[in-house]
Amino acid sequence: MRLIIDGYNLLHITLPLFQGASEDLQRRRDQLIDQLASYRQRKPCDMTVVFDGWRGGWVTEKRERKKGIDLIFSKLGETADEVIKRLVKERGSGAVVVTSDRDISRYAQRMSAAVIASDQFGERIGQSGLRKEGKDALEEEETETSKKGPSRTLSKREKRRRAALKKL
């Protein structure tokens, strides 16, 4: 399973910028990478985090590897959305996309990739590895929809999303 993460989208969910605070963007990116690296130790998987570089980036796409996580900064004039779409097209159904961007979500679903909202994934990486007392939120959700009949069955998209969440 390859996680393709919309970097700034997840960054603003997990480490919100407080009004009036002029935090260093690089420091905030490093904090996000630290969180992802500690999550990766608990749940080993391949991760690619894509950041925007279209306004003030490099002439060519910049790729780095930090703490076992692939980082991609889009080139000048290219948005992170375009890079994510290209990666999803290459991976297809083997990718899990973490974003709250509707355009990317729709594109990934058309390419049969699972999509997880940034806030849901943010909660996962924020956990200390321990599940909530009793049942996991996903298990609770499944028991609520355990009714039978064709009108109660889950869509393929929802089944893919739940399968990806279980792996996380």
What name is given to the CATH topology?
A: Rossmann fold
Q: Based on the structure, what is the oligomeric state of the protein chains? A: single chain
Helix-strand sequence: EHHEEEHEHEHHH
End-to-end separation = 10 Å
Describe the structure.
The chain is α/β, with parallel strands linked by helices. It has one domain (2-167): Rossmann fold. Helix content is 45%, strand content 17%. Helix 1 crosses helix 5 (118-126) and helix 3 packs parallel to helix 4. A 6-stranded mixed sheet has the order 3-4-2-1-5-6, with helices on both faces. A hairpin with a 2-residue loop joins strand 3 and strand 4.
How are the SSEs ordered, and which strands pair?
Layout: E1 2-6, H1 7-14, H2 25-42, E2 46-51, E3 62-66, E4 69-73, H3 80-91, E5 95-98, H4 102-110, E6 114-116, H5 118-126, H6 137-144, H7 156-167
Parallel strand pairs: 1-2, 1-5, 2-4, 5-6
Antiparallel strand pairs: 3-4
Helix pairs in contact: 1-5, 3-4
Question: What key phrases describe this protein's structure?
Answer:
45% helix, alpha/beta, 7 helices, Rossmann fold, single chain, 168 residues
